[in-house]
Each structure stands twice: as structure tokens, then as C-alpha cells.
Amino acid sequence: MTLDTTIAGSLPEPAWLAEPEKLWPAWRLEGEDLERGKRDAVLVWLEEQEDAGIDVASM
Questions:
Q1: What mean pLDDT do residues 20-25 have?
Q2: Contacts of 52 (CB under 8 A, 6+ apart)
Q3: 10: which residues sit within 8 A by CB, 6+ positions away?
Q4: Residue 57 neighbours by CB under 8 Å, 6+ apart
Q5: Would you tell me how many other CB atoms lie within 10 Å of the CB of residue 18?
Q6: Mean per-residue pLDDT for 26-54?
Q7: Which of 15, 35, 36, 54 qualifies as a FRET site for 27, CA 20 to 30 Å off?
Q8: Are the beta carbons of 2 and 30 closer than 8 angstroms?
Q9: Domain spans of the chain?
């Protein structure tokens, strides 16, 4: 997977969390599942940045 560094503002949401092809997508989860999904998405992107050799991770 490539890490698109041209995205401004935030990293894209995973497809299991929201619809990444839409500008302002609705969340696919609700309540505690949404909070857990957001935390999981952060961990996924931190791992992607670490695997890419990025020294200073961003969110």
C-alpha cells in the first residue's frame, strides 16, 4: 500500500469506517463501535507511517 503524502488536512478513513471516495462521508459505525473504530484507524495509520520509515508520525 502506498501512503499518499499529497492529502491535506487528514489521512483518509479506512473503508470499514467511512466511504473514502466521498468528501464528507457518513460514518459506517455508531456509538462505542465508532469510538473503537476511530482508535483502530489511528493505530493502522501510525503503523503505516512507521512501516514507511517516517520518523515523526502525524494525524
A1: 82
A2: 3
A3: 59
A4: 46, 49, 50
A5: 20
A6: 91
A7: 54
A8: no
A9: 28-59
**36-59: buried (b, 16+ CB within 10 Å) or exposed (e) per residue?**
ebeeebeeebeeebeeeeeeeeee
Has residue 58 got a pLDDT over 80?
Answer: no
3 or 38, greater pLDDT: 38
**Residue that is written with C-alpha cell 501512503 in the block:** 3
Dump pLDDT digits (tens) for 4-21.
665 556 667 888 899 878
Please state the rounded mean pLDDT for residues 16-30: 87
